[in-house]
Please model this.
Amino acid sequence: MALGLQAAAYDILSQTRRQRVSDGDQHQLLVPGVAKQLVLVWPQLGDFDSLEYAWWLQRETDMLAAKGITVRAVGIGDRNSGRAFCAYTGFSETSLLVDADGSLHQALGLYPGLNLSIPGLNPRQTAWINLLLMCAGIGSPGTLPEVFRGYLGDRNAPQLIADEEVVQATPLPPIQGEFFKRAGGKGFQRPFELATLRLRNMAEVLGKWPTYVPDVSHITQRGATYGIANGEVIYAHCDRNILGFAANMSRPLSFLEQLDW
Model:
């Protein structure tokens, strides 16, 4: 992102106020007086990317704390969406704001996703068709390779499920982490490991769809990640596809190691 765009993004983020999930009040997105902030502008809270990103943040809690990085996020949905999201992912309700209509995403110029106009369909139906096309890789470059990576495994990614962990991913029966060890080894992302976590996320959202996605009008909208230090945007990644929330999907938070905080 060019310096001018980074400055414009900071101005928008610093002026943004939205409803906070924990208390329902309006709060600033950026935390005043905090030097190092990781600001996540998530798509719909029921989106694959939002749920998976939150999982990685929980996994790297100690690293974020050691670096003194304060995390704030805003996602498309309402307060009920936020409560469900935090209950499932463990993300803090005090760190999550909600944007009902994606107006922040629009102000930042983030990719709205595929927006084909289909004669004879109403806006809700059109949004669904556009989302399905994006899941097939149309208007969403990189989605299909990332889906396949979830099934095939990735030796450049860490192991995701501990051997003793039991994963419930409806409609599959409970799966113990030992299964992935027998299927592919240990110490890296094994075949079907990431796909199983994604299936678990999908089951969670579909089971509570009206809560997670109160308005389908914005289900194609993509998000962004901003690293902020001392009042400046020093890192930005703007999503261009479903399952493209990081520059390095094998290790989504690896960019934090490269920043001059």
In short: The beta strands are 17-20, 26-28, 36-44, 70-76, 96-99, 166-167, 175-176, 224-229, 232-238. The domain at 3-137+212-258 is CATH 3.40.30.10 (Glutaredoxin). Residues 192 and 199 are 10 Å apart (CA to CA).
